[in-house]
Write a structure and sequence with these properties.
- The complex is a heterodimer of chains A (336) and B (284).
- Chain A has 336 residues and is mainly α.
- Helix content of chain A is 74%, strand content 0%.
- In chain A, α5 crosses α12, α5 packs parallel to α13 and α7 runs parallel beside α11.
- Chain B has 284 residues and is mostly helical.
- In chain B, α2 crosses α4, α2 crosses α13 and α4 packs antiparallel against α5.
- The longest helix of chain B is centred in the C-terminal third of the chain and has 38 residues.
- The chains are: A mainly alpha (336), B mainly alpha (284).
- Chains A and B meet through α1, α2, α6, α7 and α11 of A and α5, α6, α10, α11 and α13 of B.
Chain lengths: 336, 284
């Protein structure tokens, strides 16, 4: 689609760049990992308060401390924490308070695929359509469509995802009754079987649609702005003078060069995208990580919340790492 | 003295922003929300948490947006909510911009090992997912709006730091910086008196981004039920609206306005910020 240009990047350069990024990624992983350990220790008293232990007998309190491992020294606890994550499979993130004695890992590993499905599909749609729309708008900059879309993107920036979801439910599920308002009501939670794929997609339509409306304008805006800059570059004028067709010009030359910032945008904004998706899940009772957050937040089930923070950070980290790889593949000029 | 100088510079920039239509809208929206927040007690027809009518009233002249489940006036809540949301947005953005500008200036101006370390820290902060982390903290620490503001401010400065650093790198090489050094200014003076004023429009742009995301994130925390109810904000209004069946009752006048206000506040800030960014682009 973007022409047959070959990538002239010395492999030595590429690998040293990637090595740097891998090291950064590992550092970030450990920082997140340590934060995840420290937070509950900020206020050990309220951990007990959170379990509702204020009217416990002293003996019960001691027993509880022992059960949670809080009677050990901090360094011992940290060693325990490292052993639980790396030397056991599945990794041990503790036991959920609210769903005792179900391990946190079980809860998260059930919820995570649902979130990945929602975020994956919605971002694939909004990114690819957004990039195309942005390229088209840049080509027709100054037109009515361009300024209208500019207004929409500026507005979408501050729209809370769950509020948009509420309005869509109000319109499509309550007033028009074309889509179900919530996922869990039709009992599709039994798992992924082929016959259910259609059912799942039908029930996931509104959550996905919400996220597409929310994110597409932002991708379009970033792409449009970058591409307007690219269109003014000298090489574009040269290509134009060579008499290339405008479609080749737009997609093969300008869009390809403008793609990079939109990839960075996707990766850097991934944390915000996830947060938006979590809140949308809550409104639709979509059984992903967001739904788990809501249940756990109400029950002050902090082991689960902590694991969700940890996995969210990992997802953002992975997204950024993939973006780095895409960068080195797409841009022959990358030199770090 | 210097603060006065910054304000006059900002005033000048704002006037340039106001030359375009979108800039006018941005300034108008922002000024409007600040006006409502400051004068809330005089504008709102009722006290926001006083029973002023029957529960679940539909919009009427006496209650422009109707009443909630305990008969409190929703229009008054919307006006007071401006104060709560703006407090979060502006304070968190101030903390975030202060940290981001400091880190960016130092990392860009000094470079070397300390700069390298600062940028590594920035890389880490950049990928921390704010809402999940905030949820963990809010579930452990007793919820208070100031904790929320501090956490958002402390964790959202990274994009600002990156941009300010790269601007500092490019400005540092300009002749006027050398001239200032020869005239006897020390590093701190050059950063604060020479470099920073040149970057004010960018600071406003990134402050606007930070403020919008702070308001949206705080409302998300409210929605989950971890917000602080003592600070009446638009998010708290939405939390009550959705928790008390506004959706099933079809009371769109209850759940529509607070979200719309958040989005409009965001639009105002972003348009103002974009206008400022245009100044930077024209100048360079």
């Amino acid at each position: 689609m973007f022409g047959k240009r070959s990538f002239h990047l010395p492999s030595r350069l590429k690998s040293s760049y990637l090595r740097g990024r891998i090291i950064t990624t590992i550092i970030i992983f450990f920082v997140v990992y340590v934060i995840n350990f420290i937070i509950p220790h900020l206020e050990p008293g309220s951990v007990l308060a959170a379990v509702g232990s204020s009217n416990l007998l002293p003996a019960q309190r001691t027993q509880l401390l022992q059960m949670l491992g809080l009677n050990q020294s901090l360094s011992q606890q940290f060693l325990e924490y490292v052993r639980d994550t790396f030397l056991t499979f599945p990794p041990n993130f503790g036991i959920s308070f609210a769903h005792y004695p179900i391990p946190v890992w079980t809860l998260v590993s059930v919820a995570l695929p649902w979130t990945l499905l929602l975020v994956g599909i919605s971002q694939a749609i909004s990114w690819s359509l957004g990039v195309l729309l942005g390229a088209w708008l840049a080509w027709h900059r100054g037109s009515k469509a361009d300024s209208a879309m500019l207004g929409v993107s500026n507005f979408m920036w501050g729209v809370p995802s769950y509020w948009l979801a509420t309005i869509l439910i109000f319109v499509f599920a309550i007033k028009l009754k074309v889509f179900p308002p919530a996922l869990s009501t039709s009992g599709v939670l039994t798992g992924f079987t082929f016959a259910q794929v259609e059912n799942i997609l039908f029930h996931s339509f509104l959550p996905i649609f919400t996220l597409v409306i929310l994110n597409l304008p932002v991708y379009a805006l970033v792409m449009r702005n970058t591409m307007v800059g690219v269109l003014q570059d000298d090489f574009m004028r040269a290509a134009e003078l060579r008499g290339l067709k405008s479609r080749t010009l737009m997609l093969g030359h300008a869009a390809r060069n403008a793609l990079l910032p939109s990839i960075t945008n996707l990766a850097l904004g991934f944390g915000a995208i996830l947060s938006g998706a979590y809140l949308v899940e809550i409104i639709y009772s979509y059984p992903g990580m967001g739904y788990l957050i809501e249940q756990s937040a109400l029950a002050r089930d902090y082991p689960v919340l902590e694991a969700i923070f940890f996995f969210s950070a990992m997802l953002v980290l992975i997204a950024n790492f993939l973006a780095d790889i895409a960068y080195t593949l797409l841009d022959p000029r990358v030199e770090y | 003295m210097r603060v006065l100088g910054w304000f006059s510079a900002l005033w000048r920039y704002t006037k340039i922003v106001g030359e375009t239509t979108s800039g006018k809208i941005g300034i108008g929206l922002t000024a409007g929300f600040f006006f409502v927040a400051i004068f809330a007690p005089w504008i709102s027809p009722y006290a926001p948490t006083a029973t002023s009518g029957l529960p679940y009233l539909k919009p009427s002249l006496a209650h422009i947006l109707g009443t909630d489940d305990v008969g409190e006036d929703l229009f008054s809540q919307l006006i007071w909510g401006t104060r709560g949301s703006l407090l979060v947005g502006v304070t968190a953005a101030a903390i975030s911009v202060f940290l981001g500008v400091s880190v960016g200036l130092v990392a860009g101006y000094h470079g070397g090992k300390p700069g390298e370390v600062l940028m590594r820290v920035t890389d880490v902060v950049l990928v921390l997912p704010l809402l999940p982390l905030l949820i963990v903290i809010a579930s452990i620490v007793p919820s208070s709006v100031f904790v929320v503001i501090a956490v958002i401010g402390i964790l959202s400065w990274a994009p600002t730091a990156r941009v300010i650093r790269s601007q500092t790198l490019s400005l540092r090489a300009r002749p006027f910086v050398d001239a200032s050094r020869l005239s006897g200014m020390n590093d701190l003076e050059i950063m604060v008196k020479v470099l920073l004023p040149n970057m004010l429009p960018l600071v406003v742009l990134y402050g606007a981004f930070a403020a919008v995301s702070a308001v949206v994130i705080e409302s998300g925390l409210d929605f989950i039920g971890l917000g602080s109810i003592s600070n009446l904000s638009w998010g708290i209004m939405l939390y009550f609206a959705l928790g008390r069946d506004a959706l099933l009752r079809g009371s769109w006048w209850w759940f529509l306005p607070p979200g719309l206000m958040i989005a409009l506040l965001g639009t105002g800030f972003i348009l103002l910020g974009n206008g400022m960014e245009r100044i930077v682009r024209i100048r360079s």
